[in-house]
Specification:
Blueprint: E1 10-14, H1 19-35, E2 40-46, H2 47-53, E3 60-64, H3 71-79, E4 85-90, H4 95-101, E5 106-111, E6 127-128, H5 137-147, H6 163-172, E7 179-182, H7 195-207, E8 211-214, H8 220-232, E9 238-239, H9 246-255, E10 258-262, H10 265-272, E11 277-281, H11 286-289, E12 299-300, H12 302-310, H13 331-342, H14 344-353
Parallel strand pairs: 1-2, 1-4, 2-3, 4-5, 5-6, 7-8, 7-10, 8-9, 10-11, 11-12
Helix pairs in contact: 1-5, 1-10, 6-9, 7-8, 7-13
Length: 354
């Protein structure tokens, strides 16, 4: 399905969460903007995610605060009162997004293909994107740009960071300093690697002349994990967990030489900044949700786990379930991947291209 953009002046994008997914969505939005610079774009977004993207150029944001419960839907309807969009891109498969879409008036309502349009999404859309056999989430999102006739679907990112936040990051990581940033915590505890193994990578990096910084959000889980990593480490680490805003963290990730993270938002934030990422995966398929430009540097046991749980011919992207799966990721392959990324040749090449 391709639409005629000559007759379209306004577009509404519905993607509420999460951090990694909105990073993917930015690449799609900016692909559309490159081809249609005069298109008016309104993005319905979650409260936390807005804090990361609020400086995005030429996009009007409307915040959907799910913490307000049913009131959030009425607030959204009030915020959009009197607005009618030419096109809605309904890019979130979740019941709350399906319900939120009812507050959006749009003639053309584009959703996922029938197999992916779960949680009632297919009921509130009237056009479908092209079905893909085994897409990365970002490629699935780019299907919406393709439906609008966008030709250049190459992912590129421009997420502006306030000058004060960039200066903050450069005080923590001066230009040219070799630094490993560990964003250790995922949204669910079972997707976290072991503290002593993070500590092992940190000790190895320090021995190689790198500084190591722990970063993350302010939750008790993240703070406790950072403390456990430090307790297991023979070297002192710079613990910045809970001390940065999202835009400050984005700036820190840009200054970093390498980022180590499980399946979590900061891994995708680092991708938007061109920083190499070592992703750690056991529960989800990195081919679908891994750090897009760094899939070659993922350390994964997902295939082994999913084959043990489901055998061959499992549906694309199905998650592995259970506790202790991340323990299957041993220390040695992660250190080996660090050594590959931190080699002087690759390190210098990265600095030249950024």
């Amino acid at each position: 399905m391709n639409l005629n953009l000559n007759s379209i002046n306004s577009l509404c994008l519905l993607r509420l969460s999460a951090i990694g997914d909105v990073c993917h969505a930015v690449a799609m939005v900016q692909a559309i903007q490159r081809q249609y610079p005069n298109l008016r774009i309104t993005w319905i977004i979650g409260k936390v995610e807005y804090q990361l993207l609020k400086n995005l150029p030429d996009v009007e944001f409307v915040i959907f605060d799910k913490s307000q419960g049913w009131k959030s839907y009425f607030n959204l309807k009030r915020a959009l009162a009197g607005q009618r969009f030419d096109v809605l891109l309904h890019m979130q498969v979740a019941l709350r997004a399906t319900l939120a879409s009812l507050a959006i008036s749009a003639k053309v309502r584009v959703g996922f293909d029938r197999d992916r349009a779960k949680e009632g999404q297919w009921l509130v859309t009237n056009h479908k994107v092209e079905a893909l056999e085994a897409p990365h989430v970002l490629e699935g999102f780019m299907g919406f740009a393709k439906a609008l006739g966008v030709k250049d679907l190459t992912p590129k990112w421009n997420i502006p960071v306030p000058t004060a936040d960039s200066e903050f990051a450069k005080r923590i990581i001066p230009d040219g300093e070799k630094t490993l940033v560990i964003c250790a915590a995922a949204s669910k505890p079972e997707r976290n690697w072991l503290p002593e193994r993070y500590a092992g990578v940190a000790e190895h990096a320090i021995a190689k002349g790198f500084r190591v910084i722990l970063c993350g959000g302010p939750t008790s889980l993240e703070k406790t994990l950072a403390q456990d990593i430090q307790a297991a480490c023979s070297q002192t680490l710079d613990n910045q967990v809970g001390k940065t805003s999202l835009t400050q963290l984005l700036a820190v990730l840009k200054q970093a030489s390498i980022v180590l993270a499980p399946d979590t938002g900061p891994a995708h934030m680092a991708v938007t900044q061109g920083t190499p990422v070592i992703g750690l995966y056991a529960h989800s398929n990195p081919g679908r949700t891994g750090p897009y430009s760094c899939l070659a540097s993922v350390v994964s046991v997902y295939d082994e786990v999913i084959n043990a749980q489901h055998g061959d011919n499992v549906p694309w992207g199905i998650r592995a379930k259970g506790v202790g799966l991340m323990e299957m990721i041993q220390l040695e392959p992660v250190i080996n991947m660090f050594d590959v990324l931190s080699s002087d040749y690759l390190y210098q090449i990265r600095k030249l291209i950024t």
